[in-house]
Amino acid sequence: LHADLAPDLPRFLQGDPIRIRQVLLNLLGNAVKFTDRGEVQLRVSLTKMSSGNAAIVFSVTDTGPGITLELQERLFQKFEQADLSTTRQYGGTGLGLAISKELVVLMGGSISVNSQFGKGSTFTFEIPMRLGDQPKFRDGENQERRHSHRLSVLCAEDGLTNQMIIRSLLEEMGHDVDIVEHGVDAIKALAQRDFDLVLMDGRMPYMDGETAVRCIRSGGTSDIRVRSRDINIIALTANASQEDREKYLAAGMNGFLSKPINEKDLFEEIGRVITVLLRSGHPLIEMPETASEPMVLGPPTRSGDLHSIPAPFDPLEAAPSDSLSSWSHPQRAPASRLPAYSGDPSNMMQRIAKAFIEDAPQRLEAARINIMAGHAQGAALEIHSLKGAAAYVSLTTLQKKLEILEKLADSGDLAVVAQGLPEVETLLLEGISSLKKILNHPAHD
Ligand code: ADP
After folding, report:
1. Exposed, middle or buried: residue 292 (CB in 10 Å: 0-12, 13-18, 19+)?
2. Do residues 186 and 230 lie in contact, with contact meaning Cβ atoms separated by under 8 Å?
3. Distance from C-alpha of 37 to C-alpha of 419, rounded to nearest angstrom
4. Which residue among 63, 90, 113 is best mutated to probe the pocket of ligand 1, counting the most ligand atoms within 8 A of its Cβ?
5. What is the pLDDT confidence band of residue 238, given thresholds at 50, 70 and 90?
6. pLDDT band at 166 (very low <50, low <70, confident <90, very high)
């Protein structure tokens, strides 16, 4: 894989890095996938430049099998119209290029293919961009792990453990977060007040993430209108396969974060969103140097009648001063000194472990009730949520078992799911008792 960047490319441009990256990933991914021998070449060049505007051309050339004329004509068509036999014949979802085209067009550009059957293909897209200035980041911002601006984030996520994690991470980074449990409440929240970013779980009760995003992009429901249909929405996905990504992109998501959420990825993704928002002229509040305005910690106060989670316990008071053994860390800064992202996960992990101990048995019970009532979907949802929570507290065996049961519940095989419950229950009880031990007797190191 070679990359050839023209020497006259402007150093700074104003564009949408998330979308450009997605298109490049699609094209480069295909090129590498289809090329058994030879090479893949990425070229980036400048074609036009006039009074602050530039047109940038990206091309991806491979020495793969090439594409027949007949297929070339259909390549960028939306999957709904695609001939099923193509998918069957060539594998894949047949979605990548249609989405690439959509993204390129959204950026005001165009995309085309030039291919000789048996010799290889070249995909080219051109995007107009404004010339940019060097971003005004504070010195050493990355080392400091501090975002330049504070975002108001809405998170739609039904699992208590996930909610805890996302709230902790975002607040420790200095952002403001409101949490709702499903798509319907997310839409209500977006109708009530302005947010800068939405983190949207895929699988939720009442309305899943994909449906919610489609609804938001179309302005809301007939009686609940969202304030901004263009808001940045990042999908939280447990199994972010290429297929999932394409599905979510097609629904209108702007990016992805894989669950379990990793703080570094979240930090970077939010940094990217801030850059994109600033570039587009979206007004943002600067991150205060010190946390003299403590908007963090404690139950949310300004969400009106939004469905927000109650704080199940006071994490800072309840937590022992030492950390869980596997997450042990030096003393954290006092809470009032937040919101610089401290990078210290120990307290958060204690919060998560406690949330898990409280929440997990209820989830299992809810799954059992759903199974008894013959509600496969409800059972799958509860099992899914418990699985995600198990991943966070590193109960891997339990997580794997639940993954199998979730699939079975998805396929409606509730009798088999029921047979698996006793084992899950044992694993859960064992897991909870080991978490309790660690919480009560934190390792000293
Ligand atoms: P997917 O890769 O998921 O099938 P795409 O829309 O990305 O979806 O591609 C659709 C089809 O176009 C592929 O299945 C393949 O047949 C063909 N194709 C795409 N890129 C190339 C390439 N670089 N070389 C040969 N065939 C390609």
Report:
1. exposed
2. no
3. 49
4. 90
5. confident
6. confident
- CB within 8 Å of 62: residues ≥ 6 apart: 31, 32, 34, 35, 38, 39, 40, 41, 120, 121, 122
User: Which DSSP symbol is given to 85?
Assistant: H
Both tokens assigned to 45: 């060049």
CA distance 44 to 126: 10
pLDDT at residue 329 in the model: 27
Report in angstroms the alpha-carbon separations of 71 from 92, 151, 298, 377. Answer: 14, 44, 57, 38
Instruction: Give the Å distance between the CA of 26 and the centre of ligand 1.
Output: 9
For residue 31 and ligand 1, the question of a CB distance below 6 A is answered with yes
Distance in Å, CA 96 to ligand 1 centroid: 8
Q: Is it the case that residue 242 has pLDDT exceeding 60? A: yes
Q: Cα(133) to centroid of ligand 1, in Å?
A: 37
Q: How many helices (H) and strands (E) does the chain have?
A: 15, 13
Cβ-contact 271, 147 below 8 angstroms: yes
What are the structure tokens assigned to 105, written together? 């067009």
What are the C-alpha distances in Å from 405 to residues 359, 398, 425, 432?
19, 11, 13, 20
Q: Is 92 left (phi over 0), alpha (psi -120 to 50) or beta?
A: left
**Cα 286 to the center of its chain, rounded Å:** 24
Give SS3 for 433.
helix
Tokens representing 28?
A: 């480069």
Query: Is 394 exposed, middle or buried, given 0-12, 13-18 or 19+ CB atoms closer than 10 A?
Result: middle
Ligand 1, atom 15: closest residue by C-alpha? 90
Q: Is the CB of 246 under 6 A from ligand 1?
A: no
Task: Quote the tokens at residue 367.
Answer: 């799954």
* Distance from residue 67's CA to the centre of ligand 1 (Å): 8
Q: Model pTM?
A: 0.45
**Contacting residues for 385 by C-beta, under 8 A, at least 6 apart:** 158, 159, 162, 363
**Element spanning 56, H or E:** strand 53-62
